[in-house]
């Protein structure tokens, strides 16, 4: 523990010193009344995206045993703190600072320096401080999604340290490559409106790495039923509502693109949910609530990278494909993969993110994208191939680096619980705070 504290102190001192080397950046123009609509809309979207992370705690917690409810709330809460601190100290500047050889951003925004709340840069629609805050919420929810894969095995201290390192070595580079002018933007014809690669594939693949390292839970735990379906339903409702800000705000303006993004988000989620329900009924002869909300999330994931580039008709196809492919993906992960992805993170977020990213390369409308970025069905192969390369690159990078991080952490502390501890539950073993007393 002393080693960890020393490393943290050294890192903080290093960052503080580096701020002295970074010059101030001149502002472009002052905010005026005409900017009020965009600023207000993105502030609302920021709040909507924030509520998704507590929503994940309820969504995941309702699907777990009652002995794990406190654990998922604790992990989600610490993720909010860690990702915020990391983003403020260094994450944002690594993601959105001036590009360094396509790999990472520079240190111009370290410790939130040079971020203005009352000026707007040339070509932007909102102040860069507001943009920083909006993007912070994406960092929070991405880390929150990771937790569902390895829950009930990885210890609280270990997952906290993992997320702290992962935020700098995995999430920040991914955000830079896609949205910050890095590798993907420079060398690929690629589109990701709201985070198919950066958020969903990244989170799901990270979760898969943790699952592979931690191994399976006890069979007794895996057979337990969800403890609170209404809570899972409420969590899904918060996620669904938050997704309107997630996708609707990603155009960074209160305009027609925002309207379209919200419309296609609702359409994709509904068609995916209905598709999942039909397939589940054909497969097992019944439809349950957890299946329907999983289907809705699959549709929300699938439309995320395409929300600013497709219309309602394309959203129907993407939603149906998301419901079908994610259902099959979940069944495969549970029955055939040999991995214990506790809450189907890869089956839903991974498969849904992959499908949505590739579907963007197929269906992107000429009227909604720059020239040369049209989808495959309009005769352009560049975007389709670029999306495939981006997906593969994200899978490889996030898995390899995430696995290395947890492997190194395992040399510093005990990462997983033993079978007895798993059965008793992390609520008691780690937190001494059961969620239910009846």
Give structural notes.
It is a single chain. The chain has helices spanning 2-19, 36-63, 69-96, 128-150, 156-179, 183-187, 196-214, 219-222, 229-248, 256-284, 289-303, 312-335, 345-363, 382-410, 419-424, 426-429, and strands at residues 29-30, 99-100, 104-105, 119-120. The chain has a single domain, classed as Orthogonal Bundle (Ammonium transporter fold), CATH 1.10.3430. A hairpin with a 3-residue loop joins strand 2 and strand 3 (104-105). With 438 residues, the chain is mostly helical. It starts with a helix and ends in a 9-residue tail after the last helix. It is globular, with a radius of gyration of 21 Å.
What order do the strands of the largest sheet run in, or round the barrel if closed?
A: 1-4
CATH class: Mainly Alpha
Shape, per Cα inertia axes:
globular
SSE pattern: HEHHEEEHHHHHHHHHHHHH
Main sheet specs = 2 strands, antiparallel
Structural class: mainly alpha
Show unreliable segments: 13-27
Fraction of helical residues: 55-70%
Instruction: For the record, give the distance between the C-alpha atoms at the N and C termini, rounded to a whole number.
Output: 36 Å
Topology diagram in text:
Layout: H1 2-19, E1 29-30, H2 36-63, H3 69-96, E2 99-100, E3 104-105, E4 119-120, H4 128-150, H5 156-179, H6 183-187, H7 196-214, H8 219-222, H9 229-248, H10 256-284, H11 289-303, H12 312-335, H13 345-363, H14 382-410, H15 419-424, H16 426-429
Antiparallel strand pairs: 1-4, 2-3
Helix pairs in contact: 2-3, 2-4, 2-9, 3-4, 3-5, 4-5, 4-7, 5-7, 5-14, 7-13, 7-14, 9-10, 9-11, 10-11, 10-12, 11-12, 11-13, 12-13, 13-14
